[in-house]
Structures are given as C-alpha cells and as structure tokens.
Specification:
By secondary structure, this protein is of the alpha/beta class. It is built from 5 helices and 7 strands; from the N terminus they run αβββαβαβαββα. The protein is globular and about 65 Å long.
C-alpha cells in the first residue's frame, strides 16, 4: 500500500502544480480590448483594432447628468494634454442615455481636445457591460487592458499607469 501511495504522489503533485500555474496565469493575464469602432462627432470612424492599435489610449464612459463625470473631466483633459505628445489617445464615450445635444454642447463649450463619440449601447456592452459612470479603461499599445477604473480614478495612479505604458511602448 505504501508503494502505491508513493507512485501516486508525484503525478498528483505535478497535476497540482499545473493547475496552480494555470489559475495564476489566468488571474494575472490582462484582458484584450474588444474589437470596437467609435464613430466620432465628426463622422470619422476609429477602431480599437486598426487606428488605435499601437497606441496607449483611454476609453472614458460618462454622462452629462453624472456629477462625478463632470468633476473628473478637467483632470482627464489635463492628463490628456500632458501625455498626448508622448502618444496617449483618449476616446470619450457619452452613454446611450445621454441626450446628444447635451454631450455635444458640453464638449463644444469646454473645447474638449480629445475624441468624443455617442454610444448607442453597443460600446458599453462591448467594454464589459459598462453601467456605472464614470468608467475609464487604460489600454496598452498591444490592446491589453491595463486598468479599469469604476468611478473617478486616482489621477496620481492613473498617471503612473499611463507613463509606464508609454515608456514600455517607446522601449520596444
């Protein structure tokens, strides 16, 4: 009986190590950004798999009735202004329930410098069924989602994530 336990110990241990490795890999793996196309206010189409591939970018879901969204917008603009020269892009997505005129007026009167699109619900769905605003995703140049913020981000932490992604992009 002792001999058979010894024989089973090694294969059982190897299976346990393999399962632990697989679970660890799945937990640490960064999800891919969905294949999505943004139709900007200008009518131009921007795709996550074509035009944005190779860039570090943010996707920010917001609404004009969301006080946290409005409060974070100047900080998002500041972040964009500071990192855009190094390659950062930002797509601002007004939620499907945001009145078009409100979103357009907000962007126009504040002269938002980044891309703006109006969602019909398909973008929120594609990006993980976004329901809470603001929600901001940081995507690296390989299309991996580095960070997902639900609620206003810690802008110091966001800066660090962006700076590292841009540095990784320029170092490769």
């Amino acid at each position: 009986m002792k001999l058979s336990r010894r024989r089973l110990w090694l294969p059982a241990s190897l299976i346990g190590v393999a399962i632990a490795f697989l679970i660890g890999h799945l937990l640490l793996a960064k999800p891919e950004v969905p294949s999505a196309t943004f139709t900007l206010l200008s009518g131009k189409k921007i795709s996550t798999t074509a035009e944005l591939r190779g860039h570090v970018f943010l996707v920010n879901f917001w609404d004009t009735d969301c006080s946290s969204c409005i409060a974070e917008m100047p900080s998002l603009e500041n972040t964009y202004q500071r990192f855009h020269g190094a390659g950062l892009e930002l797509v601002s997505v007004a939620m499907s329930y945001t009145p078009r005129d409100y979103a357009v007026d907000y962007a126009r009167t504040r002269q938002l410098p980044f891309m703006l699109t109006l969602d019909d619900g398909s973008l929120a769905h594609a990006f993980g069924d976004v329901q809470l605003t603001p929600t901001t995703l940081v995507v690296d140049r390989h299309g991996k989602i580095l960070k997902r913020y639900v609620g206003p981000p810690d802008f110091g932490q966001l800066d660090t994530v962006i700076a590292q992604a841009l540095q990784d992009a320029s170092g490769s």
